[in-house]
């Protein structure tokens, strides 16, 4: 976290601008991981005055480091924000896991598009999720070093490069983005953004970058700071001393601590002995924080162990939480510190957030299972868009009782279970075979839906 941010000793209650949470999305192989690595790498190289700190699930790049990377583009005195917090796991799967009630947890996103490959199915899927969650984003037109005419010794790309990437990305943007986003953006966007990074006029800017050479990274960070400062102030004004709210990123086993959760805290402060409520597979779990763990710097791990315990953590931050009874905790589920409130009220709040997503329609339709609340939500919404009805949607592996639900469908095409990122339990496969229930599973949403639609079409053709 930036040094300017209070942690546990500040007793005054006041709204502070927390660090904007940034997610990286895009099609597979378009360079999401490389881009994050490059940003982290630049931050480590440049970060002499304010080193980047170790976090769970995210990398915080403080404002002073951003301004060192961006040079004259970012004057730290122009910004009230402490920096940027990048979620380490790229992809829209993790993005949709990161949800807070009524929207996405990430404040801002980078949509990575390979300039040679243009918009691909997962790019469109990502745009769809970003539009639905109303998340401001910018497009990183990546791999410009591979465009003919690229001149790595010259900071500015040659005109040929600009033309090449403009043709490709801008055409795709025009064809796809306008249609998908509609009136979300009333600004004309174009690759000209590169030359106008200082006026932050556009909702959707295109920044040519190379995750390989680092070209364009300063501009990307500059535009992101500008966007955050301009659009996100309201959401990011949090009472850092209030009770924490967060989201489970992952349920993990941590040596010496048993089952723990990796979480992103987006509001308030969590302390080492707080009572918390965590969303679980069977409903809210009430427990007490045993330890808050932060990774140690590499050079200390050998002598000191992998994690250090901290007393308190303020938003926005990624932290590992050790507490009893977390075995049932669920990725994508909310975490709340109870604080002065009545614990039943907090349980109700968590329950309501969980119920928002687990769907039980009672109508004729397919059964849907997913590994996290976020992916369940993303899948359910894709199915809705495709007008595929759902009878029940839940988090968890495909179990015999799901087959029992599916087999009651009248129409054969609904005697189906769609699983995203989940396992099928052995007795469930056996039972499905016995009862004539089809199970589709995949870890890419559009593929899963495509496979199911192909199956339905085939069946219909066969019946004609
Ligand atoms: P992800 O699947 O979106 O996370 O993509 P990766 O970051 O794993 O990148 C996929 C491949 O593209 C890897 O082989 C990277 O080295 C390569 N790559 C990523 N960014 C760039 C870039 O800017 N220039 C070049 N030349 N290669 C890149």
Observed structural traits:
binds guanosine-5'-diphosphate, disordered N terminus, alpha/beta, 464 residues
Could you say which overall geometry the principal axes of the C-alpha atoms support?
Answer: globular
Number of strands: 25
Question: What value does the average pLDDT take?
Answer: 80
**Class computed from helices, strands and strand pairing:** alpha/beta
Bound ligands:
guanosine-5'-diphosphate
Architecture overview:
Helix 2 packs across helix 6, helix 4 packs across helix 5 and helix 11 runs parallel beside helix 12. It is built from 13 helices and 25 strands. The chain is α/β, with parallel strands linked by helices and 464 residues long. The strands form 6 sheets. An 8-stranded antiparallel beta sheet has the order 15-14-20-11-12-19-16-17, with helices on one face. It has a 6-stranded mixed beta sheet with strand order 3-4-2-7-8-9. Strands 21-23-22-24-25 form a 5-stranded mixed beta sheet, with helices on both faces. Strand 5 and strand 6 form a beta hairpin. Helices cover 33% and strands 26% of the residues.
